[in-house]
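This part of the workshop introduces the protein records we will be handling. An example says more than a description, so a record of this kind follows.
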Amino acid sequence: EPLVKVEGPIGASSQGFSDHPIVVLVGAGIGITPMISVLRMLLKNPGKMRRTFFYWTVRDRNSFELFSSLMDDIYDSDQKHVIQIRHFLTSVKHDDSDLGAVLLKYAVRAKHKHSDMDLILGGQIHHQVETGRPDWDDELRSVRDEAKELGHDDCGIFLCGPGKMAEAV
């Protein structure tokens, strides 16, 4: 007879989000699942939330395609434009010393800015896909700056992803 051992959950990645005016949600791969639920709840009942930053990192572009209609629904539901969504395709390494990578990064941003066309995915999406891993220092500095512009010092960060990502964040 097989023995099955189940551990967890070890803390919830999405408890207490409605207590913060600035919310940062980070999902890696399938870690998008609980974060999508949080996004939907915040859109229905924002509580204290004034701005939400949603980061999603994946290794392959097929993941974006699987969740594209779900992300479009969230975009369409965000009537007050309080959610900023950032996607990162981590299998494409970004190297500032590689001229091709630098040009790709700027071409992707320029094309998306003018047409919602994403060169990485080859289609129209509301949210641009960045290549490489997020630079968490830069990303969180940007969150801090925007929070200050909105008059807030409090920020809640919620993550569903690997331990290494948690350490980086």
Remarks:
- The first strand starts at residue 22 and ends at 28.
- The chain has a mean pLDDT of 78.
